[in-house]
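REVIEWER CHECKLIST
Item 1: Sequence provided? yes
Item 2: Single chain? yes
Item 3: Sequence as submitted:
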Amino acid sequence: APSIFIDSRREPLLHVPEMSYGSMPIDDGHLILSQEEAALFIQQEPITEEMIRPYSGGKEFINNSKRFCLWLVGVNPSNIKQSRLVLDRIAKTRKFRELSNRDATKKLALVPSLFGEIRQPENDYLLIPKVSSENRAYIPIGFMKSDAITNGSALIIPEAGFYEFGVLTSSMHMAWMRYTCGRMKSDYQYSASLVYNNFPWPDTNYKQKDAIVKAANEVINARAKFPDSTLAVLYDRNAMPPELAKAHTKLDRLVEKTYGKSFENDASRVAFLFKKYQQLTSDLFTKNTKKKKNA
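Item 4: Structure as written out by the authors:
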């Protein structure tokens, strides 16, 4: 077979919603609260309730661990001034940034009440953990509410819907991910620039998209039947409930159909996807070359 190289790409190869990192606090932990600390803040100073948001990375998302953060975007400064606890955390964040060796971090000391890098969507969004166990057939991904803050240990797609969720959690995308992702020890390390932005999405008509959306909803509904189980448990190969496995199998089959054939295994899936990738990049190169000639 021909040697095909995957380039790091800043934007998706095809016209699909863009993926980015979550927000970065750059605070030495001072803007982050444990579940107990968040409860104590609200108990001692009820005014802080509006300033505390759920806070999650990939690990917290998969294991349903509860953490919180001080999210002061748009909060009335007068309310912040009334909270001794919040002012103390802000002061510590400012000091940490001022003592940094990085000029960019020092500049952030001017706004110590805010995260250093803010990418929080205003609407609900899709979360993809950056690191996931190699023992899972699927990386557990899912939707987050707009008030839940996601950090840089996860990737987010603000404009994603159930169609995007369906394709990304399918066996086709998982096969592509396993061959193109990085590794954290032996675990999968998902990448926007390598995995997502280079993924050859299928060409789908309205009927196919509708079927994938319905099947994606069935996956979400199957998860919801086990509210006391974390995604780590639900996606364990030995513990996955039959209802969830069945929903994923149906979704896999529908996504494969959009590529015009069925596949025996991951090797055949990846061989097909690499061929499609080669065709797409070749077409893109030709298109860009024509644009330069006509410019």
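Item 5: Key structural point noted by reviewer: The first helix runs from residue 35 to 44.
Item 6: Recommendation: ____
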